[in-house]
Design brief:
This protein has 5 helices and 12 strands. By secondary structure, it is an alpha+beta fold. The strands form 4 sheets. It has a 5-stranded mixed sheet. Strands 10-11-12 form a 3-stranded antiparallel sheet, with no helix packed on it. A two-stranded antiparallel ribbon has the order 1-2. The radius of gyration is 18 Å and the shape is globular.
Length: 207
């Protein structure tokens, strides 16, 4: 049932005209919901269908695909570091990272925590805003804004429950399990997600 619903969503996206695509709603530019065509900024929207189709398992892979971003797996004090618009700041400290509009950057050093613990199966869409957005978000949004919008169950039909699971295996005994359960029952909706990532990681002898 879930696979059929996902197929219907993908088919409907492919059938959209250019005008329909420009009417897709975003909320990260002005702080209010508006269409992409009316948003006074350059913005990229990554949908849950694109996350699934491209096989992303972490924000490192998403950033590596985004225009204007450089992303590195450094396996140091922070596993991932990324730079936006060529401005090499420590750990994305000049890009504001939000989850459902709430700031996730550290209060002291402004580090954006986009590590592997974030469950991508629970993402409805990611809105990436390019350029300074200090008027709306303050001085931390110097290079841009990344707003991760999660599922809340209201997108499902009444009485529907859904479980989405992703499993990945890789080199160095790497194991990745990403799972989200969501549902919608009358006035009650829920979404619960979790992620387990285990890896021996490469050692110095691997380089």
């Amino acid at each position: 049932c879930s696979a059929q619903a996902e197929g219907n969503i993908e088919d409907s996206l492919l059938e959209l005209t250019l005008e329909d695509l420009l009417n897709i709603k975003v909320s990260s530019v002005s702080g209010i919901e508006e269409s992409i065509a009316d948003a006074p900024a350059s913005i990229v929207v990554i949908t849950q269908q694109q996350i699934r189709q491209r096989g992303y398992h972490s924000f490192h892979e998403i950033f590596a695909d985004l225009p204007g971003f450089d992303s590195y797996f450094i396996n140091a004090s922070r596993a991932i570091t990324a730079y936006q618009r060529g401005y090499r700041t420590p750990f994305m400290s000049k890009t504001l990272f939000l989850i459902n509009g709430r700031v996730q950057n550290h209060l002291w050093d402004q580090i954006a925590y986009t590590e592997r613990q974030l469950a991508l199966s629970n993402i409805e869409r990611i809105e990436v805003l390019y350029g300074p957005a200090s008027v709306v978000y303050g001085p931390n949004a110097f290079l841009g804004v990344v707003n991760m919008i999660t599922k809340n169950g209201t997108e499902l039909a009444n009485g529907e429950d859904k479980v989405e699971t992703r499993l990945a295996l890789g080199s160095w005994n790497t194991q990745n399990l990403d799972i989200t359960a969501s549902g919608h029952h009358d006035k009650f909706s829920y979404a619960v997600s979790g992620k387990v990532y285990i890896s021996d990681e490469p050692g110095l002898d691997d380089f």
